[in-house]
Amino acid sequence: MDAGWEAAAMGSPGVELVPIFIALLLAASSLWVYQDDSRRVRQGRGVYFSVGSLELSTPGVWAACCLVLWVLAMPLYLTCRKAG
Fold this sequence. Notes:
Elements: H1 3-10, H2 18-42, E1 49-51, E2 54-56, H3 59-68, H4 70-83
Antiparallel strand pairs: 1-2
Helix pairs in contact: 2-3, 3-4
């Protein structure tokens, strides 16, 4: 059996760690958002976003949105944070 074929059949080393890395990245960035917005709320400068009936105004809501919809919520948080 060809050694190259065996390596391909077994998968690349570390590929099974990718989902774990992504989960850790999501958790860490959501925790940072929670801590950052909590600090800003205590200073009276909380991050706020509203469109229609959707309102993101508390650290918990921001963190939950970042955890579930990171691709949309994290850039939105950073943009609103900068504007505030």
